[in-house]
Write a structure and sequence with these properties.
The complex is a heterotrimer.
Chain A lengths: L1 H7 L10 E3 L2 E2 L1 H22 L1 H7 L1 H14 L14 H6 L9 H17 L8 H5 L8 E4 L4 E4 L4 H5 L1 H4 L12 E5 L6 E5 L1 H11 L4 H11 L5 H11 L2 E5 L2 H4 L5
Antiparallel strand pairs in A: 1-2, 3-7, 4-5, 5-6
Chain B lengths: L8 H14 L5 H7 L28 H5 L35
Chain C lengths: L23 E4 L5 H6 L10 E5 L9 H12 L2 E4 L13 H14 L3 E5 L2 E4 L2 E7 L5 H18 L4 E3 L6 E2 L6 H12 L2 E5 H10 L4 H7 L5 E7 L2 E4 L5 E4 L8 H14 L4 E4 L7 H17 L4 H7 L1
Helix pairs in contact in C: 4-5, 8-10
Classes of the chains: A mainly alpha, B mainly alpha, C alpha/beta.
């Protein structure tokens, strides 16, 4: 089966000896398998990366995806994980060197898919924080579906190309950060401003609430902690409160 | 007066109470102030599950796929993706492989 | 920073195994779940059972599991694997087998099945059901793999006959004899795909009726029905593609009747995996299968005299 397998992804290699019709070679017949594999994997890539496919256009996307498939054929029967290293592949893909924003779109689309299939953990309830002692010293455990992505490009607008393309122009000079979460069953993507990005990034980095608010205030004088905390709850970015190590070593009273 | 802003415990407690009072949706007021808060409608569709498996072959023929060889990516010509809505084919030295929406 | 989606850790099952009824079922698609459950004023569409691909429910959580739990609460379920590589030359992937087991244990399906095919070689998964030569050596390998899967999940599985586009000069067995030997030696059942019979018979120029008449139907516990596409091979001979992208052909319905005449009514699945239509189209296909099942409720021994 080794020859059969090798020939599937390499059209220059003929079908193995003795495989065909009535003992004779039948290239068109073998090509059905080759076609099934290539079309199936291309479809999988299009379904995983619909925003990229929209922005790049069918022909460009297929060309690049074919190169990816030959370099990274699947290693698992779980197709929902297929194509994970596509962002890194795009970064090193020379013909796309002038479109460096594509890799960030791939990262967001992959995070979206991971969120879609992530484990069903409840999100942190606001009441839990409200009833906690000394909340400013607490840190937060990120929800398994949550992912914060900072981009030098308008990642929110680019990601939404899956819904809005063709759209009247995206300003590539704008940097945008996005938060991808799944509060219940539906994924959501939220565009963050600079202060909220600083706030959430600090929390994702397991800093305390106080440190996170301080970093956000440093990033932007106009930072509104109430709105940012609400945003963390409403998006389901976190699943539980954590007591930093210093808290656990308190001497008994 | 300290030059460095520090969040006080009282301010944090107040912010938490205010956040809880706002309820479970991303606040429109907050969104309006920030101006660009947006929650995508994407993902409302069940087909957003990404790729699934199949036990079927395909009748869709990928002719390029069938003729496709291990071309080194380096030898491919540049692909330039435009997203700014500007048709700059005039005067552009780059091959433009995709027609833009007008 | 993205969360992992690989998990075999589904919560304990709330379901108890429920056998598939000898009625028409449909392959479940995510986009149909709401229509199915809302049909008949919320009582749900009148379908005998649903079948899913095990691999699509190997993620940790989210909407796929929510949908399948809601379907499973109302309908008997069949779990159909497409990635075990039962016909492969290498050992079964223990991680994949563990995930498969978790899906089966969680959903407690009435039937579990896999394919006489391979899809993994070395560490590459080719995402297609690939053919194997029928030799003593491959027979032994398939039997061992089926045995391993059945031992791991603690229950019998069915093995499906393939649709093929090529044959192997080294094959020493007829396909129907090979299938019978697999069932006998491994103690598994068989899943009889009537469309696959028609495709392979056309592609390799033999009589599908003779194949059905010679098939070990006594091992068959479920039937698959699907549509196929037509092409031509290098010499201009007809080459049918197992595309699952259109209604079941009239020739396949005729072969289905011939099969049921020998077996009596069996759980019969409509598969539609590419260019998937709106739910009512699938429901109508299932109704056609249901009518044929209804008119075939004759005793198998009577039917055998007719065959």
């Amino acid at each position: 089966m080794g020859h059969f397998a090798e020939a599937l992804l390499n059209p220059e290699q003929q079908a193995p000896q003795g495989v065909g019709r009535e003992g004779r070679p039948a290239p068109r017949r073998f090509a059905v398998y080759r076609n099934n594999v290539v079309v199936g994997l291309l479809e999988a890539m299009k379904q995983a990366y619909p925003s990229l496919a929209a922005i790049m256009g069918e022909a460009n996307f297929s060309k690049v995806a074919r190169h990816f498939i030959s370099a990274h054929p699947p290693q698992s029967a779980m197709m929902q994980t297929y194509g994970r290293p596509f962002a890194e592949f795009l970064e090193s893909y020379k013909p796309l060197a002038k479109s460096p924003f594509l890799a960030d779109i791939a990262r967001a689309e992959r995070a979206w898919l991971a969120a879609y299939h992530a484990v069903d953990w409840p999100v942190l309830a606001p009441e839990e924080l409200a009833s906690a002692d000394n909340p400013s010293e607490l840190s937060f455990q990120p929800h398994p579906a949550a992912c914060l992505l900072r981009s030098n490009y308008p990642l929110f607008d680019l990601f939404n190309a899956r819904e809005t393309w063709p759209c009247p122009g995206i300003d590539l000079d704008e940097a945008q950060a996005v938060l991808i979460t799944r509060p219940e069953l539906d994924c959501m993507i939220t565009r963050l401003d600079g202060a909220d990005t600083a706030f959430l990034a600090a929390l994702f980095d397991r800093q305390t609430l106080e440190t996170a608010i301080t970093s956000a205030m440093e990033a932007d004088d106009g930072f509104e902690p109430a709105g940012a905390i609400n945003l963390a709850f409403a998006t389901g970015a976190f699943c539980s409160l954590e007591h930093p190590l210093s808290q656990t070593s308190n001497p008994p009273a | 007066m300290s030059k460095k802003k520090v969040a006080s415990a009282a301010m944090i407690a107040g912010a938490i109470s205010a956040a809880v009072a706002m309820g479970a949706a991303v606040q429109p007021a907050h969104a309006a102030k920030i101006k660009c808060y947006g929650v995508s409608e994407a993902g409302k569709n069940d087909c957003a599950a990404g790729p699934g498996t199949t036990c079927a072959g395909t009748s869709k023929v990928d002719y390029q796929g069938n003729a496709w060889t291990y071309v080194e990516a380096d030898s491919c010509e540049d692909i330039v993706i435009k997203v700014d809505g500007q048709d700059d084919r005039m005067g552009s030295s780059e091959p433009l492989e995709r027609d833009l929406p007008s | 920073m993205t969360a992992t989606i690989l998990s075999a850790n589904l919560p304990p099952s709330a379901f108890s195994a429920e056998p598939l009824p000898p009625r028409a079922g449909v392959g479940l698609k995510a986009q149909h779940v709401d229509d199915i459950l809302a049909a008949n004023d919320g009582k749900g569409a009148d379908i005998g059972f649903f079948e899913v691909h095990a691999e699509n429910y190997m993620g940790a959580g989210g909407k796929p599991h929510d949908q399948l739990r809601r379907i499973r609460e109302r309908y008997p379920l069949s779990v159909h694997g497409v990635g075990m590589s039962i016909g492969g030359a290498q050992p079964i992937d223990p991680e994949h087998l563990a995930r498969f087991k978790a899906v089966v244990e969680h959903y407690q399906p009435g039937m579990v099945s896999e394919h006489l095919a391979w899809s993994t070689h070395d560490d590459v998964f080719y995402n297609d059901l690939l053919p194997l030569p029928y030799t003593d050596e491959t027979l032994q390998m398939v039997v061992e793999h089926v045995d391993e899967v059945q031992n791991a999940i603690g229950r019998q599985i069915l093995i499906e006959n393939p649709s093929t586009y090529v044959t192997f000069a080294e094959s020493a067995w007829n396909e129907f004899e090979f299938m019978k030997e697999v069932a006998k030696r491994a103690g598994c059942g068989l899943l009889f795909d009537v469309n696959n019979v028609y495709i392979s018979a056309t592609n390799h120029d033999y009589s599908p009726e003779a194949y059905i008449d010679a098939y070990p139907l006594e091992y068959v516990q479920e039937i698959h029905l699907a549509g196929h596409a037509s092409d031509r091979d290098d010499d201009g001979n007809p080459l049918l593609i197992d595309a699952h992208d259109r209604p079941v052909s009239s020739d396949v319905w005729t072969l289905y009747r011939r099969t049921l005449a020998r077996t009596g009514p069996l759980p019969s699945l409509i598969e539609w995996d590419n260019d998937v239509p709106e739910w009512p189209v699938l429901e109508a296909e299932a109704a056609t299968a249901g009518q044929i099942l209804g008119s075939n409720r004759v005793r198998p021994e009577t039917a055998q005299q007719l065959a």
